[in-house]
Specification:
The chain is built from 7 helices and 5 strands. With 228 residues, the protein is α+β, with helices and mostly antiparallel strands. It has a domain at 53-205. It is globular. The N and C termini lie far apart (107 Å).
Length: 228
């Protein structure tokens, strides 16, 4: 009788393991109820645009064959940006005989349109002798640094990587650029809905007059660089 007791003990231990799912686990650790059923979640891939704002600007410059200063800021093709396109314009700079560095700005001389962020640039030449204003040698360092970030925020919105309201503050440098750039009047007339949104107004409250003419003297457009 006494020799059978160890085998009884083995049977009891095996029965206990079967009732617990057949897995002993680590000492002192209870087995998880979902063990082996739910795999760990996969890491989410970050949302990225097909091209950055800097890459789009470089492609526009190359296609239009213009120096950096002749190119406007990156602009949404529509607002709200439903179609996923962006557009640049170019201007012509005529040196003025004066005691300091200054230019007369004419244009637009061409339009560079990207139907989507991954599309090739489509260049349309514009026969325009419209005088937009005058540029005097002046540089706003804050706008020079903040406008590229605003352009990238715009690209992220168009790519679907950011929500409009979440990026509103990052887009504010566009307003500053419009005030100091000779091309600002033209862009305001083209995109009243975008300008109204930046200012936090209803588009119907904005009354922007379209047309041509000489605008007041303007400092150097942020985002532009010297040299032809």
């Amino acid at each position: 009788m006494s020799s059978a007791r160890p085998w009884n003990l083995v049977v009891v231990v095996l029965g206990t393991l079967c009732c617990n799912g057949g897995s002993a686990g680590a000492p002192g650790q209870a087995p998880s109820a979902n063990q082996g059923l739910n795999p760990p979640p996969k890491a989410l891939r970050p949302c990225t645009s097909p091209r950055t704002a800097e890459q789009l600007r470089a492609a526009a410059r190359s296609a239009a064959q213009v120096p950096p200063r002749d190119l406007t800021a990156l602009w949404p093709q529509s607002w709200p940006p439903r179609d996923g396109g962006v557009v640049f314009w170019t201007t012509d700079w005529e040196p003025l005989p004066s005691g300091h560095v200054s230019y007369r700005i004419r244009g637009p001389t061409s339009e560079i349109r990207f139907a989507s962020l991954s599309s090739p640039p489509d260049v349309r030449r514009i026969d325009s002798d419209n005088i937009l204003g005058k540029w005097v040698d002046f540089q706003d360092v804050d706008l020079e640094e903040s406008l590229p970030r605003a352009e990238q925020a715009m690209v992220d919105i168009i790519a679907g990587c950011r929500e409009l309201e979440a990026a509103r503050a990052d887009l504010q440098p566009y307003l500053g650029w419009l005030e100091v750039d000779a091309f600002g009047k033209f862009l305001k007339s083209r995109s009243p809905a975008f300008i109204a949104w930046l200012k936090g107004k209803d588009p119907g409250e904005t009354r922007l007059q379209s047309g041509s003419g000489v605008s007041p003297s303007s400092p150097r457009p942020p985002g532009s660089r010297r040299g032809r």
